[in-house]
From TrEMBL:
Entries under InterPro entries matching the protein: MFS (IPR011701), MFS_dom (IPR020846), MFS_trans_sf (IPR036259), Sugar_transporter_CS (IPR005829), Tet-R_TetA/multi-R_MdtG-like (IPR001958)
Top-level taxon in the UniProt lineage: Bacteria
Compartment annotation: Membrane
Any one GO molecular-function label of the UniProt entry: transmembrane transporter activity
Residue ranges of domain Major facilitator superfamily (MFS) profile in the record: 6-401
Protein known as: MFS transporter
Family from the record: Belongs to the major facilitator superfamily. TCR/Tet family.
UniProt keyword Nucleus, yes or no: no
Membrane topology designation: Multi-pass membrane protein
Annotated TM spans: 7-28, 40-60, 72-97, 228-249, 261-280, 292-310, 316-335, 356-376, 382-397
Keyword match Transmembrane: yes
Amino acid sequence: MFNDRRLLLIYTIVLIDVIVGSAIGPIMPEFVKGLPNPQLWLSAGTALFLGMQLFSAPLLGKLADGYGRRPIVIISAIGTFVADCLLLPVRVGFYFANRLSDGTTNGMYAAVRSAITDISPKDQLFKNLGIEGAIISLGFVVGPMASGLLLTTFDVVPKDQAAYVTIMAVSLSAINMLLSWGFRETHANPPGISRQVLKGELINALNVQRLWARLVEKSRRYHGLKQLVLMQLALTFSTGYYNYFVAYLSVGQLRMDAKDISYTFIYFGLLSIVINYIFYTYIADRINQRRAIFWFALLGTPTLAAYGLVGTSEVMFYVVLTIDCLTLSLIQGLIEGLMAQLTTDEDRGEIFGINQAMQGLGSFATTLVFGAISLIDLRLPFAWFTGCLMLLTWLAARQMQKTFVKQIT
């Protein structure tokens, strides 16, 4: 199945990392239990985790270009292990410490996507990145499933459930640390980075204005990059509902417990695996990707709005979830594939790092927005997510128009 065995290890590391993250998702409400407006505290933790990527992702991406992908994968695996250990005391303070620590070293995906692009032939690029998307979906299935099986098999009482799941997460992240040491470098002859350049990179990473300037500079070299990153940013705003789901499902009208939330992620993940694999293996390379982004965004817009209108009906919720998998859930891989085609070995990690930082900025901003407006009405954030997807639809339409004009002139 894999022309390069390094892909198998990369996918395995990604799978375990997502399993760990998704396994602890359903127990996160336990860390803020008893606090006023728990959905706000959950949102604050998510904002902290994602906001840390504003400076860490570009820095780690630059390091991946200078010293190779392997060191960054190892550092990220160690960071996840340490962060999970911080959750062992089920206290709100340790929850925020986990979000801070894990967010700082969460640069693995910039390095991983750079590594996949390094070793993928051009005709296999969309497929290999699509498989990565399917692997991530699989992790979202296996994680909650593992938590559910653990709690059911050992008949764990509610007050101990968070501790049991955290111990499992720590064990899995320890396995990923070992696997990361077996990761073989994919970036031939990395040039290294001087101490002065590294210091400048750290300063630049803390400057959002400079981050945008770097994106504009790269876009001059790689025509169309800025437009793709802006589309990715709009998508990030709209997919903030992924981070809102746990709070919405547990505190909202559906009133799901940890097991019900686990079943939701299992269904969503299983369906995404099948759809992503079929689409990216047999369809993505044969269609106009930019046009597909437009249509998926257009059809996904009413889907996002519908999440806020399902009320207490789990049947309607699962219908909307199914349509979600067939539309807007496919956009991410298309944008990443188009972006990967614009990069070169020279600065691939840096570009993916800038993109991840922009996503971190978008995730941070959208989390602050949905956290605040959820205090008014728990359904209101889905109006925000819908509006952001409408923005993506408009950006995709403009990009199609520019491409058409260029073709006829």
